[in-house]
Specification:
Layout (H helix, E strand, L loop, with lengths): L2 E7 L8 H14 L3 E6 L5 H14 L5 E7 L2 E5 L11 E5 L15 E2 H14 L3 E6 L16 E3 L7 H10 L1 H5 L13 E5 L8 E4 L5 E3 H12 L7 H15 L6 E3 L17 E6 L2 E4 L12 E5 L11 E10 L4 E7 L13 E7 L5 E3 L6 H10 L3 E3 L11 E5 L2 E5 L9 E2 L5 H25 L14 E9 L2 E5 L8 E2 L3 E8 L5 E8 L5 E3 L8 E3 L4 E4 L10 E2 L12 E10 L6 H4 L39 E11 L58 H4 L10 E6 L5 E6 L9 H4 L19 E6 L9 E6 L7 E8 L4 E10 L3 E4 L6 E3 L4
Parallel strand pairs: 1-2, 1-3, 3-7, 7-9, 19-20, 26-34, 35-41
Antiparallel strand pairs: 4-5, 5-6, 8-10, 9-12, 10-11, 13-14, 13-18, 14-17, 15-16, 15-18, 16-17, 21-22, 22-23, 24-25, 24-27, 27-31, 27-32, 28-29, 28-30, 28-33, 33-34, 35-38, 36-37, 36-39, 39-40, 41-42
Helix pairs in contact: 1-6, 2-3, 6-7, 8-9
């Protein structure tokens, strides 16, 4: 293996420290045995930088370690507000020394799209790539407080947005050559270390010796030299770099992006479930909260940042969580008497979970397997084995059939399947661990789906509109006017559109949760949330020139195509940047983001101590809102229709977007899509206070709104159908003998005449709020809707043909009669 590095320094404008930056990084990289080549000074033209990078690519081999370092200006250009022509509204670029060369005839920077193409070509040769950028995007003319002329921002003058668009349009063919434009904004193989967050300023500073150097480069060089002989991952080192940088410039937030769990300049990754802990104004603050499943009463072991693997000998304290917010938690520290360290270092520490106070979901397992899986379930965080005489239904059941083992839902869907080799004890042990991990992951997803805003003072009052719809021929076609659509098929493409009509910037993180409980961060290219300034829009997913590519709906690889599956989109809309990567990747330590002038303490991403200036009049936390969009996905390849009562040809449903698909597909499921209307999340008597704009916006007709609410107070999940007409069923001799409470009937044997709406409400569990859903009514003339309730994951019929008045709230308490609360404004 050869280690190859390219150092690029562009002293365009008034920067004085780029050459010193390059020499400092050369010294550090030499200690790590890199062969260093240079492109600096007069060589760092647009053509010179691209040629040098391409030469590095040509020389790299699959086993090599490659590092690219850049010091200089980086610019940012944005379209005018309210200009939504389908193209990206923001582009970023590097600034070569010939940036203003009149012979170039136009824009002469190096766009982020071009950098992405170069980076993709690099990782195609070797996966071991590290990119270090000591530059910033900000064009603001500012001075660092207290430094005067001894500190300079790495910024550039404004650039014409139209010049950038013209450059892109003129060079589309060359940019796309050998490069997938759909993946231009992400590269899973490259570690990226950046000096500052978007819209922040990166600084170069004059030291006591009179030499200029980038603050980020100086800090990174110091940490890399200090830890040369130790095997630390980038995610830990960047925390220490942040601490050094912010000691000088509190509003510059350095970041590590990409696979930052890697050990420095290698492919080896540090696997750890540690969470960063920081002392802020004397208060220990865990940089994770309710969204990351932290609960009051959790106990964490605390160690210094010098090792990501927990060791009892390195433990300095125990942290007891006493107050939990959405993205951050406060704790109380108890230092061990044997530790020589009796305080948390300024850069923070690592916290390892010792004992969880979180609710644990019950799971079932065959008696023959209890002895094998019980120890593994005991070590899990979110599940427990169901008691022998315990009431209620388990979240999932473990099954074992012949040589296969996995978990299945209570209605019999096999969610995971793993091969079990009875002749290999080691393989069996690994498989049992994996099955328990599958169940634990699903329980984690259930907790996330049941998450609600804890306090009224945490609610973000915003004006962000979100819509989801289908993509056909790169054009937005059918929009889902209600969350979820039964006509969403495997392999179709959807778009997610975001629009901020407010006056303050919002940030949006988008999570996808599939039927197996796998959590994916769809907005991962925006590591700390999609930034939405006022009057800005964002589409997922668009290519650089505005072509709507969309997100393809896929089917889990190991899941049988026997029936539709429920999937979910969760949109977290926050007032500040938030790092939610730890939710989808347990080995990610949440990073801290920008310090806002209007915030006293930032959630998990805040760096440095509490500010003394104007603190008392400012809010103490990031506020947020949650938008939940359920989706029902239908497999493309349908099995033969089972001979159930509802599939005999009687009461066939019309097939259109507002109704359930017809019975020729072998299913009978009420539609989750109804006529266009915005429904309030809660009835007025359940509102805790001011609500987010999205969940509160109504289209009122005079008086009572044309909708109803249902609240599940039962310990099992329920499926609720609200229809305009009573459901129908083909009666048989067997069904006439069935219990009037619905035993023997389920959702598969019930046919609803459209229009109707179906939703599943989670069980009421300790620590989570009651599950509530809003349902539309299709006419005000009748003044009521017909409600049908199915209980448990098996969807057993319990209540049928009850009427619920328009605007009312129905409480289900596992009793034959619903508790009805009339509408009160």
């Amino acid at each position: 293996m050869t280690k190859r590095a390219l150092i690029i320094t562009s002293p365009w404008g008034d920067l004085r420290g780029t050459e010193n930056d390059g020499r400092s990084m050369q010294s550090v990289l030499a200690r790590y045995s890199f062969q260093v080549s240079f492109c600096h000074g007069a060589q760092a033209t647009r053509k010179g930088i691209i040629d040098a990078w391409e030469q590095l690519i040509a020389s790299a081999c699959s086993e090599d370690s490659v590092a690219i370092y850049y010091s200089g200006h980086r610019g940012l250009v944005e379209s005018a507000p309210n200009q939504d022509d389908g193209k990206e509204w923001r582009y970023q670029f590097l600034v070569p020394v010939d940036f203003e060369d009149p012979r170039s005839g136009g824009f002469n920077g190096i766009l982020d799209v071009e950098l992405a193409r170069l980076l993709r070509a690099t990782t195609a040769r070797t996966r071991n790539v590290t990119v270090i950028l000591d530059c910033c995007y900000s064009g603001r003319m500012v001075r660092a407080p207290g430094y005067g002329e001894a500190a300079r921002p790495k910024q550039v003058p404004s650039v014409s947005y139209q010049d950038v668009i013209h450059f892109l349009t003129s060079n589309t063919e060359s940019l796309a050559k050998g490069f997938d434009l759909m993946k231009w904004d992400e590269d899973p193989d490259a570690v990226r270390l950046v000096a500052a967050a978007p819209s922040e300023t990166a600084w170069e500073v004059r030291g006591k010796d009179g030499q200029w150097m980038g603050s980020f480069t100086a800090a990174l060089s110091h940490i890399l030299s200090e830890t040369h002989s130790r095997r630390l991952p980038w995610r830990t080192s960047i925390l220490r770099v942040q601490d050094l940088v912010q000691a000088q410039f509190p509003f510059q937030h350095s970041r590590a992006e990409g696979p930052h769990t890697r050990i420095h300049f290698s492919l080896e990754e540090a696997t750890s479930d540690a969470i960063h802990l920081k002392v802020e104004s004397g208060q220990p603050v865990l940089q994770a909260g309710r969204v990351a499943h932290v609960s009051e009463g959790d106990m964490y072991a605390v160690t210094c940042l010098d090792n990501e693997r927990f060791s009892k000998e390195r433990q300095i304290a125990v942290c007891n969580i006493i107050n939990v917010h959405a993205f951050q938690s406060e704790g109380r520290l108890y230092f061990t008497t044997s530790s020589p360290v009796q305080e948390v270092p300024s850069e923070g520490a690592l916290a390892f979970l010792l004992q969880s106070a979180h609710y644990q979901w019950p799971i079932a397992a065959p008696p023959s397997m209890l002895q094998l899986i019980s120890p593994k379930v005991h070590e899990s965080r979110f599940i427990r084995l169901m008691g022998e005489n315990e009431q209620g239904s388990p979240l999932v059941s473990v099954y074992h059939r012949e040589s296969f083992i996995g978990i299945q839902s209570q209605d019999g869907m096999q969610l995971t399947t793993r091969y079990l080799n009875s002749e290999s004890p080691t393989q069996m042990e690994d498989v049992y661990k994996a099955v328990v991990a599958d169940a634990d992951r699903l329980a984690c997803a259930q907790n996330l789906l049941g998450l609600q805003i804890g306090n009224a003072d945490e609610v973000f009052s915003h004006h962000v509109e979100a819509s989801v719809g289908l993509v056909e021929n790169s054009q937005p076609k059918e929009a889902f006017t209600q969350p979820g659509c039964d006509n969403l098929y495997e392999d179709q493409k959807i778009y997610i559109s975001l629009r901020n009509d407010g006056t303050t910037t919002a940030y949006v993180n988008i999570l996808h949760i599939n039927v197996q409980g796998k959590i994916s961060l769809i907005s991962k290219s925006s590591r700390f949330g999609i930034e939405l300034p006022p009057q800005r829009s964002h589409w997922l997913r668009k290519l650089p020139l505005g072509v709507l590519e969309g997100l393809q709906v896929s089917w889990p690889a190991d899941l049988p195509r026997t029936r539709p599956i429920d999937e979910h989109l969760l949109l977290f809309i926050t007032s500040s940047p938030v790092d939610l990567r730890a939710i989808s990747d347990p080995h990610v330590i949440p990073q801290r983001t920008a310090v806002s002038k209007l915030q006293r303490t930032l959630y998990q991403l805040c760096q440095g101590e509490r500010r003394n200036l104007m603190d008392d009049d400012e809010p103490g936390q990031t506020v947020y809102d949650i938008i939940h969009i359920p989706l029902t996905v239908i497999p493309r390849e349908q099995p033969p229709a089972p001979q159930s009562l509802c599939q005999t040809g009687h009461h066939k449903l019309q097939r259109n977007c507002n109704q359930s698909f017809d019975n020729e597909h072998g299913f009978s499921i009420p539609s989750m899509l109804t006529e266009a209307q915005d429904l309030p999340e809660l009835p007025p008597h359940l509102l805790p206070g001011p609500r987010g704009y999205f969940s509160q916006k109504l289209r009122w007709v005079k008086g009572v709104p044309a909708c109803v609410w249902v609240v599940n107070e039962h310990t099992e999940p329920i499926t609720v159908v609200i229809s305009q007409y009573r459901p129908s069923r083909l009666w048989t001799e067997a069904s006439l003998n069935a219990s009037t409470t619905g035993v023997g009937f389920d959702l598969s044997t019930t046919t609803f005449t459209p229009p109707s709406t179906r939703k599943t409400l989670l069980a009421t569990t300790k620590g989570l709020k009651q599950s509530t859903a809003a349902f539309p009514l299709w006419t005000r003339r009748d003044g009521f809707g017909v409600i049908t309730v199915f209980v448990s994951a098996a969807q057993t019929l319990y209540i049928e043909n009850d009427r619920i008045p328009m605007g009312a709230t129905a409480y289900f308490q596992n009793e034959p009669d619903l508790h009805i609360v009339e509408y009160k404004n």
